[in-house]
Amino acid sequence: MLCTREITVRLPGGLRHQDATHFIQTANSFDSVIRLTCGGNSVNAKSLLGLVSLNIGPGMKILLSAEGKDAEAAVDALERCLAGA
Question: Cβ–Cβ contacts within 10 Å for residue 64, how many?
Fold first, then answer.
């Protein structure tokens, strides 16, 4: 199964520091292959270095995609991370 969704980052500080760590821990709890695309660059959503390299700030739109048996659940959980929930 493939699930793709465009999401607006609502974290006040963007996807940095503790929020990035929480995002990656959440991503790693799923079996699906998860990619995050921002500004034409795509990275493994389970990679801290990859996420930090995108320099994702508040209000930015990203494309989150997951492929695997738990893809929809993964995208739902990661969307909540980006909403600050």
Answer: 23
- The alpha carbon of residue 77 and the mean position of all alpha carbons in its chain are separated, in whole angstroms, by 9
Whole-angstrom distance, CA of residue 70 vs CA of residue 50: 22
CA distance 60 to 7: 8
| Rounded CA separation 18/79 (Å) | 16
Whole-number percent of the chain with pLDDT over 90: 88
The C-alpha atoms of residue 82 and residue 9 are separated, in whole angstroms, by 5
Query: How far is residue 49 CA from its own chain's centroid?
Result: 13
Segment holding 63, helix H or strand E: strand 61-67
pTM greater than the 0.90 cutoff = yes
Which two tokens mark 18?
């503790």
